[in-house]
């Protein structure tokens, strides 16, 4: 299925000022096709801060668009925190209905910059080690609410002569639980006439919704797929991830095999290292036994402990031994470099500090 990024963008921007779509917007402001193209390009490619910055438009048009509430972006930064080493910036963003989501910018050495974005306010999957999961689900974001988190950091970077090189859907929410809007956001990120980020530079991380892994394989996009595995057996996985009851490991791994068969693309398995839960030698060996696919890659993630949670991260040494067992069994393994722990940069942690739990659910 092909998705037209430009109409997605215009339809959502129009809906926010009470118009049904791009056609109605064009009628209401007497916008010729080339004007619409200027607005879209300004918002998504040239990264204009606001309508006033679209200097290709006549002054009166800018004024009437602004007066109607028409805007180029739909997320407002509430706070931006920078880690001490300056490599990680974490943003808390307010949506127009008052809900808040987080996104994180990571500036790696060389020119690589990654933005981690949210796809939902809250999350319905209740993974026990995750702050977002513990807070519950509020609502899906629409495509431009997801895209605008990337746009925000792209604008910041542009001021310093840099650009966004990678996007990961590893912020708040389950991307495959908001499938169509996430695919719309991917279209917006990728559009060569707009933001222009290659599919290979985008990664979607899922808790393991089997039906959507199949749908995603059928899209035949070059977008990377990451699976939050976190345990090598159903017994362990079910205690930390309730989703395992609906989609047990055998079903999840079968879906990953079908995905590889269809797309010939790698699957990344995320494995957050929790002391005494999933980090024993026996767990490592059990994991090696199920990581049989030739395009499988394991990412071991140091746990960012949440203040009120019951879990502790595994020690560096434990992670190293665990990685070594996988490595010796021939499983491609990397240990993820942890960034921004001094600013609570793990999923859902910043919002947990500013929004009390009850307020988050209601909306
Ligand atoms: N719902 C999706 C994407 C959001 S979470 C998913 O489950 O994949 C992105 C990744 O961060 C997941 O692998 C998640 O398990 C992990 N994660 C969540 N909280 C974490 C924490 N406190 N420390 C380290 N990783 C965490």
Would you mind describing this structure in some detail?
The chain is α/β, with parallel strands linked by helices. It folds into two domains: 64 residues, no CATH class; 286 residues, Aldolase class I (TIM Barrel, Alpha-Beta Barrel). Helix content is 39%, strand content 18%. The protein contains 15 helices and twelve strands. The strands form two sheets. It has a ten-stranded mixed sheet. Strands 5-6 form a two-stranded antiparallel ribbon. Strand 2 and strand 3 form a beta hairpin. The longest helix has 16 residues. Bound molecules: S-adenosyl-L-homocysteine (SAH). The site of S-adenosyl-L-homocysteine (SAH) has 17 residues, from strand 8 and strand 10.
What is the C-level CATH assignment of the largest domain?
Alpha Beta
CATH architecture of the largest domain: Alpha-Beta Barrel
Largest sheet: 10 strands, mixed
Class of secondary structure makeup = alpha/beta
Shape assignment: elongated
CATH superfamily membership of the largest domain: Aldolase class I
- Mean pLDDT across all residues, rounded? 93
What's the CATH topology label of the largest domain?
A: TIM Barrel
């Amino acid at each position: 299925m092909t998705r037209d990024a430009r109409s997605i963008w215009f339809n959502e921007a129009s809906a926010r000022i009470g118009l049904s779509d791009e056609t109605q917007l064009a009628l209401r402001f007497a916008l010729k096709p080339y004007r619409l193209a200027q607005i879209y390009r300004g918002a998504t490619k040239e990264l204009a801060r606001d309508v006033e910055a679209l200097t290709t438009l006549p002054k009166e048009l800018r004024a009437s668009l602004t007066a109607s509430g028409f805007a180029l972006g739909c997320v407002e930064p509430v706070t931006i925190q920078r880690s001490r080493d300056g490599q990680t910036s974490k943003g808390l963003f307010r949506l127009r209905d008052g809900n808040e989501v987080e996104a994180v910018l990571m500036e790696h050495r060389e020119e690589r910059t990654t933005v981690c974005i949210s796809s939902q306010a809250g999350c319905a999957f209740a993974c026990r080690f995750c702050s977002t999961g513990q807070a519950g689900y509020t609502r899906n974001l629409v495509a431009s609410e997801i895209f605008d988190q990337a746009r925000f950091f792209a604008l910041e970077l542009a001021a310093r002569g840099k650009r966004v090189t990678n996007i990961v859907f590893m912020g708040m929410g389950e991307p495959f639980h908001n499938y169509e809007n996430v695919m719309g956001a991917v279209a917006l990120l990728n559009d060569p006439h707009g933001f222009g980020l290659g599919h290979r530079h985008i990664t979607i991380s899922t808790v393991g919704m089997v039906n959507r892994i199949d749908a995603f394989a059928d899209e035949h996009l070059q977008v990377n797929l990451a699976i939050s595995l976190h345990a090598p057996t159903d017994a362990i996985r079910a205690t930390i991830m309730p989703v395992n009851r609906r989609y047990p490991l055998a079903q999840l791994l079968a879906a990953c095999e079908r995905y590889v068969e269809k797309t010939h693309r790698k699957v990344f398995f995320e494995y957050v290292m929790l002391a005494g839960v999933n980090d024993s030698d026996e767990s490592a060996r059990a994991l090696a036994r199920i990581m049989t696919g030739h395009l499988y890659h394991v990412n071991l993630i140091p746990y960012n402990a949440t203040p009120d949670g019951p879990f502790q991260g595994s020690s560096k040494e434990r992670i190293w031994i665990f990685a070594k067992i996988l490595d010796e069994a021939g499983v491609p393994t990397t240990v993820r470099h942890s960034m921004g722990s001094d600013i609570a940069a793990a999923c859902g942690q910043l919002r947990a500090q500013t929004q009390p739990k009850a307020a988050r659910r209601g909306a």
